[in-house]
Structures are given as C-alpha cells and as structure tokens.
Design the sequence.
C-alpha cells in the first residue's frame, strides 16, 4: 500500500498555509510530520482525512481496498477526542466501533490494551486528560484500519502510556499498516521525517 | 444499519441522561403553557379559543430549545469529523440524529399535551385533536430545524441565529397545525384538508431536511 501526495496546496481562511508539498509513505512505515506551530501539520492530516478541501495537487492511495475511499480506510486521532461525557467508557468505545463498522473486534481487549478495563463503566466525564487520550487510542484498536492519521498522539500521555502507544504503533506497522503522525515530541518508533515549511511571505 | 441504530441509541441515551435536553424541553413547554392563563386572565371561553395556538407555539419553542446543540455538540468534540469520514452517508446520519432528537424531545411534548389541555379548558376531544396534529407536525419542526442546526455549525456561535433561521421555515407547519386543531374544535371547515397538508409538510421535510443539512455540513468543512 502506498499513500502519496503531489504538489499539495492548502489554503485556510484565504491564507496559503503551504504549497507544493510532496510526500510518500508505504506499508510498514511511519511518517512523522514536523514543523513549527501553525506550519500546517494538522491541516495536512485533515486534508488526507478528507476533512479539508484540497486547494491544489492530489493525494492518492494505491493498493488499498478498491471499494473504499481513503478516509474510510483511515483512523483519525485529532486534538478533539470524540467522547461523550454522559456515556460510559465502554459505551463510547462501543458506539464508535458500531458506527465506523468494518472489521470490528471485541471492545474489551482494546480497553485492556490501553489500561482502561477497570474503568469500563465509568462515565467519560470523570476521565483525566491522559485517560481520555487512552480511550481515543482504544478506538484505533477496536476497529482495524490500515491507515492511522495521528495528531500529537502522545499529548497528555504519561511515560508508561507513551511507551505503550509506541508498542501499539509498532504492531500496526508490523500488520502492514501505515502511520502519519504530526508531532513535536519523539514518537518512540523509527519514523521518516517530513518537514513542513510554511511560506512566510 | 448497525451504524444508524448505534447513532440513534447513543443520541437518545445522551438526551435522557443528566444534562441531556429531553426533560428540559417538556418543562419549558409546561411553563410556557402554564403562564398563558395568567397573562390572558380567567376567561375560559377565550382560553378555549386560544388553546390550540398556545399549545402549538409552546411546542414550537420547546422543540427549538434543544435543537441548536444537534450538530454543534458533535462538532465541538470532534465526533462530526469521524462521522464525515465514515462510510455511512452523512445524509442518513443526519436523518438518524433528527429522528433521535424527535423521539427524545418531540414525542414527550405530544405525550404531555393531554395534561396541558386541562389547563387551557380544552375538552378531551379537542385535546386529542391537538395532540394528533402535534404528532403529525412536530417531526416537520425537527427535520426543518435540522437545516438551521447544520448552518449554525458552519457559522459558529450560531445559537440565536438558529431561531432566526428556523422560525420562518416553521410558519407553514404552524399555520396548518393550528388550522387543523381549530377545525376539529370549532369547525366549520373540515379537519381533513389542513391535516393532510400538515402530514405532507412532514413527509417533505423528511426528504429535504437530511440532504440540506448534510450539504451544509460538507460545505462547512474547514
């Protein structure tokens, strides 16, 4: 599987964020997107996820499932964690597993894998920032998708959580998955770097 | 199908739990209707004549009360991003969300109507007629209101804007809803004609609402 972008241009609020950006990544490889604040790391991930409209260039996936679009084969882990405070941990995870469909797995092992199995019945409102992040990560495990788009994935995670997540990312790459992560901190796995330079004209 | 059932179940669960909007709508409806006899005065004949209009206005305002959070809540916590990426069409997701909103916030208003009819000196038959028109008409309020709720996401901080956008759209529903109720209570025109139009408005909104809302949400991708 190969995910590539050619001459990608991003415009937000009438201002050009970046242009002529080329990138390419293949199965089993992690791509770390680095750049200063405001350089467009999140925008690039959202462009790939189909959540922003391309202002120019193209993004394509080769070797995926032909009947599915790129966003339908990707997990997006953003700043906002898509959790409902009124629902319990297990209900939150169960909803996303059912809604996103596909190769759904049992939610309990996913919760155990991120160390939240003891809190399955707790309303998500009572989770700490790190626990919320762990629950979002459990969504990546409850449902297999080949592409992971991660926006600052290790934010709010403690050191144990960071090494745990590094292990999960290694598993994903070993399964033939593909990771694109926007990050300031080291990911904890071997990753090729993609530097975004914003045009400060 | 699992996806839509899951979405329906989740939205109803959230609405029924602490901080959800289901109960608030009914309480608001109750307060609006209870205030009316105090402001109009103890003229029973006048109350009977105004009854259907008061119940309809109360239901309209109460259903609008919780509608502004329909998509904004999902936008704020990032759920809308994941729904947009999903293979479930956004149109169907919008329809499921509107249905959940109606079941949690619209249906309780219909159920509360017989109790409130007593306060307005409506006899059982008239109350049943108003409840029936509300049952047929409140889905139209939700499904047209959904378009405004989706626009509020695009425009951000659009809570009050929603009322301005949605209330004009609800005028036809209000006209035929009240006309059908009045026809059943005082005559002389028939109940059937305005009631059929009311049902037609609801059916049309089922088709137009989800598509317009989804188009508005897609337009707002930013």
Sequence:
């Amino acid at each position: 599987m190969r995910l590539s972008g050619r001459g990608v241009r991003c415009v937000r609020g009438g201002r050009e964020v970046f242009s002529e950006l080329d990138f390419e990544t293949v199965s089993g490889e992690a791509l770390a997107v680095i750049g200063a604040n405001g350089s467009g790391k999140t925008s690039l991930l959202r462009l790939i996820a189909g959540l922003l409209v391309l202002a120019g260039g193209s993004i394509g996936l080769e070797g995926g499932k032909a009947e599915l679009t790129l966003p339908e084969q990707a997990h997006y882990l953003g700043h906002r964690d898509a959790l409902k405070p009124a629902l319990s941990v297990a209900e939150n995870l169960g909803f996303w597993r059912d809604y996103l469909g596909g190769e759904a797995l049992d939610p309990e092992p996913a919760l155990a894998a991120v160390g939240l199995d003891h809190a399955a019945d707790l309303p998500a409102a009572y989770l700490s920032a790190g626990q919320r992040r762990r629950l979002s990560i459990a969504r990546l495990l409850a449902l297999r998708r080949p592409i992971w788009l991660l926006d600052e994935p290790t934010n709010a995670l403690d050191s144990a959580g960071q090494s745990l997540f590094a292990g999960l990312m290694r598993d994903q790459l070993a399964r033939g998955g593909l990771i694109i992560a926007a990050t300031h901190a080291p990911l904890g796995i071997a990753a090729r770097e993609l530097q975004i330079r914003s045009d400060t004209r | 199908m699992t996806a839509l059932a899951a979405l329906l179940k989740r939205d109803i669960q959230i609405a029924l739990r602490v901080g959800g909007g289901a109960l608030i709508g009914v309480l608001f409806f109750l307060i609006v209707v209870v205030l009316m006899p105090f402001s109009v005065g103890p003229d029973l004949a006048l109350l009977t004549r105004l009854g259907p209009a008061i119940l309809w206005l109360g239901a309209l305002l109460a259903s609008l009360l919780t509608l502004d959070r329909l998509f904004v809540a999902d936008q704020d916590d990032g759920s809308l991003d994941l729904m947009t990426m999903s293979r479930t069409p956004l149109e169907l997701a919008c329809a499921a969300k509107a249905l959940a909103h109606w079941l949690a916030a619209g249906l309780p208003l219909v159920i509360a109507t017989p109790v409130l009819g007593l306060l307005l000196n409506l006899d059982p038959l008239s109350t049943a007629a108003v409840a029936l028109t509300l049952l047929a008409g409140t889905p139209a309020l939700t499904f047209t209101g959904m378009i405004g709720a989706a626009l509020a996401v695009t425009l951000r901080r659009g809570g009050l804007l929603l009322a301005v956008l949605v209330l004009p759209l609800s005028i036809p529903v209000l006209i035929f809803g009240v006309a059908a109720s009045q026809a059943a209570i005082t005559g002389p025109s028939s109940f059937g004609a305005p009631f059929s139009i009311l049902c037609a408005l609801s059916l049309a909104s089922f088709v137009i609402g989800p598509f317009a809302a989804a188009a508005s949400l897609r337009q707002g991708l930013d």
Q: What stands out?
A: The helical segments of chain A are 41-48, 89-100, 107-113, 129-142, 159-174. Strands of chain A lie at 2-12, 15-26, 30-34, 56-62, 74-77, 147-151, 178-182, 192-195. The radius of gyration of chain A is 17 Å.
